[in-house]
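Let's study a protein:

___
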Amino acid sequence: MLFRSRLLRESLEASRQEFDRRMAESKAEFDRDLAESKAEYDRRIARTERIAAQANEVVNNLTSRWGRFVENLIAPAAIRLFQERGILVDRIYQRMRAPRNKPHLEIDIFAVNHDVAVAIEVKSRLTQDHVRKFVQHLEAFKTIFTEYKNNHIYGALAAIEIDGDVDKYAENQGLFIIQQSGDSVYISTDG
């Protein structure tokens, strides 16, 4: 009986050791597979991030070019458009930037004479958020561009596409909206 008991214990011990060995091998294989999967995942994420960065760069370049196109459509007509509204501007500046020692502010198109000016923001697609930001820029304008502190400043937004009722929202903010019509542009709000 002792012999049987000892054999049983030895057999159980051998089985437990075999089980432990197989579990260790399985865990090692699982760890290797997990490490390989993680490495593949990391490679795919890095590749996806590179593709996303390239796509973002392409979109930004396209948006920038499209914005310049819209600016070049609006700028030549700006003097005529606002003179027809009784705002007698006579000079146009494009991409007017704040002086280096001032907070960053850029005006896409600036139409001016000796006592009035129109700051025009150009967007390919106009959203309510663009209107809010532009109103903030207009509020800061005279403190940044101090040479125009005595001018009456009007604001205008020009866009090819306008979300929902954003044009009405902009008009309620006191802004003009310039839109494309055929091969020309026109002011669609009273400002």
